[in-house]
Amino acid sequence: MSDFCRDQGPRPTLYESSRPGARCLRPPACDSAGISAAALFGAYARTSPPALPQVSELEIMRHYDHLARMNFGVDTGSYPLGSCTMKYNPRINEVAARLPGFAQLHPAQPDSTVQGALRLMYELQEDLAAASGLPGVSLQPAAGAHGEYTALMVFRAALTATGNPRKKVILPDTAHGTNPASVAMAGYDVVTVPSTEGGLVDMEALRAALDKDTAAFMLTNPNTVGIFDPQILEITRAVHEVGAFAYCDGANLNAILGITRPGDLGFDALHINLHKTFSTPHGGGGPGAGPLCVSAALAPYLPGPVAARNSEGTYERMTPSASIGRVRAALGNFAVFVRAYTYIKALGAEGLKGVAEQAVLSANYLRVCLQDSFPVAYDRICMHEFVLSGARLKAETGVSTLDIAKRLLDYGFHPPTIYFPLIVNEAMMFEPTETEPLAALDALADALKTMAEEAKTDPELLKSAPHTTPVRRLDEAQAARNPNLRVVHRFCS
Ligand SMILES: *Cc1c(COP(=O)(O)O)cnc(C)c1O
Question: Burial letters for 132-148: b for 16+ Cβ neighbours within 10 Å, e otherwise?
Answer without folding.
Answer: bbbbbbbbbbbbbbbbb
